[in-house]
Amino acid sequence: MKKIVFFLMATFLVACSDDKAATEAASSQVNEAAVVVPEKEVLAENSVEPVTEADVSVPFYGVAQNLQRFAEVTQINDKNVHSLKPAWVLSMGDNRGQSTQPIVIDGIMYATNHNSTFAIDAKTGRQLWKSMIEYPADTVTCCGITNRGVTYHDGVLYRATLDNHVLAMDPKNGTIIWDEVAADVKEGFSMTSAPLVANGVLITGMSGGEFGVRAFIDGRDPKTGELLWRFYTIPEPGEPGGDTWEGDDWKRGGGPTWLIGSYDKDLDLVYWGVGNAAPWNAAMHPGDNLYTNSIIAIRPTTGELVWHYQFTPNDPFDYDGVNDPMLIDIDIDGTPRKVLIQANRNGYFYVIDRVTGELLKANQYVDKLNWADGIDMETGRPIRAERVKNMIATGEQTEIWPSAFGGKNVAPMSFSPETGLAYANTFNIGWKYTPVQQEYKPGIFYIGMTFEWLLPDEPKGYLKAIEPTTGKTVWQFPSTIPMNGGTLVTKGNLVFSGAQTGELYAFNAKTGEKLWEFRTSSGIIAPPITYQLDGKQYIAVVSGIGGVYNAFSGDPKLKNVNAGGSIWVFDLGEGSNSTVAAETILPPVIKSAKADVVDDETTWSASVKHGAELYEQTCSHCHGVKMKTSGTTYDLRTFPEGQKERFMNSVSNGKGQMPAWGEKLSQEEISDLYDYVVH
Question: Among 145, 171, 242, 553, whose CB has the most other CB atoms within 10 angstroms?
Answer without folding.
Answer: 145
